[in-house]
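User: Fold this; tokens only.

Assistant: Input:
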Amino acid sequence: MSAASTYEASTVLTLGSRGKLRGAPFVLAGRTCVRSDGGGLWNEWTLAFDDGRQGFLAEALGGFTVFFERPLAPAYEALHVGGALATGFVVVERGQAKRIARWGDVPEAPRTYRFADLSSASGETATIDYGASATEPDVFVGRRMKLSDLGLKPRLERPRFFPAPGGARPKGLDLWLAVGDEGELAGARYRVIGIVHRSIRVLGVRYTWEEYVLHAPTEGLRWLVVGDGHWNLVESVEVGQVEATERGAKHAGQSYRFMSSGKARVEWAMGELPWEVSVGDVVDARDYLSAPYLLSCESTGDEITWSRGTYTPSDTVARAFGKRVLPKPIGRAPNQPSQPRTPKRR
């Protein structure tokens, strides 16, 4: 598939569709496909409300966030990834992006621009478009929503993403799911769209694992991560809703203790991924533990992400995807729940 075709097909929505937000009808009047220098790809939809208002719907990593313009902007140079602002927002990402394609009625804007994405503890997100000169930035504040909240339905054709590097599979690497496999987990039906094999060194010991990238049109992305036969269903969480220190972290009222840190490296990948991946890509990774959950942070100089994994028994994964054989777990996973003790008979 050509790059232009990938951009056009990188959505689950249809131009001209009508929806409703809190009782206010709107139409998807325009769409801009955007690509960051860091390899991210997302769509920005123009919401034309029947009452004359204009909003924007960001479609990124399978998730949806509705934005409305609001004055908020600090200077671009004052932003540091992971840093907190006086407004209560945390800087999630900053960089440069390019508007690579557009359809329908979209506002005029520079093709290349600097941007920053923010997140707050209240669940609000913000994006700042610094334009070409950054003298009069445009600020949009919003909140993540489901398509059902917007009265929108995904189109039948599945979205297309960037092709993974592929190449020869590393020797000794066994794959337990295949690209194209479908299964139902946590009440939604997901399709495996890509596979990433990664590694990390912790205290001189090398660990490896596989990430099966899942996509559902109504739910967005999830990851099934397996290492030593232990599985976790992983979803992203808002950066601004995590409080972290060297010793622990808090999210959604739950406390986590620090477990490990290191540099996670991409060793191999196949299928399609919603961001550009290259073998050798490295991020700083930190993990925090509170069984059955694992709270993970990945960061570079330009971006920070948080995700939460939930320990998922292998037989649950096998049933979901109709597999007869899955790897037998080795040892005990750090976030594996304790089994209740069986009372002894007297």
